[in-house]
Amino acid sequence: MTNTLLTISNLDISLPEGSERSLAVENLCVDLAPGETLCIVGESGSGKSLTARALMGLLPAPHVRVSKGSINFCGEDLIQASERRLREIRGSEISMIFQEPMTALNPVMTIGTQIDEIFRYHVAMPAKERRQRAIQLLEDVQLPDPEKIVSAYPHELSGGQRQRAMIAMA
Predict the structure, then answer these.
(1) Neighbours of 150 (CB within 10 A)
(2) Which of 44-53, 70-79, 92-101 bottoms out in mean pLDDT, i.e. has the lowest?
(3) 66: domain range?
(4) Would residue 1 count as lying in a domain?
């Protein structure tokens, strides 16, 4: 494949000693070009979330770790990347939408504040423009009354609305 955005080669993710099995993921290979979508489907416990966490440098080390293989994103080896570099990439270039948004959203911050936090970290943009962009993102994921939702707390939204807010944040 030419013009590859993401290449995962021979990836093994090791589980802690004493686990039911030694590897959560074994010999995973993926090539993804710009504009392509990858869906990872599998049974509970099959390694889907750990694969995504490995990609973002979020494995619960030292117990769960990449024990073999490589993850290259835009030609950069993410396994060797510094924590600082991974923080730069997370949210601006690679995002993960968690299955249960209530555990991923901060319960004491409004949805708008949480979206704004991403903009403040990754984009140089005035506060008023960031708020308008947050409202637009909520509108883009077809949330009703985005002006109201931007000021809402996670517990004030339905499960589906929280999931769409997470998609807007990604």
Answers:
(1) 24
(2) 92-101
(3) 6-89
(4) no
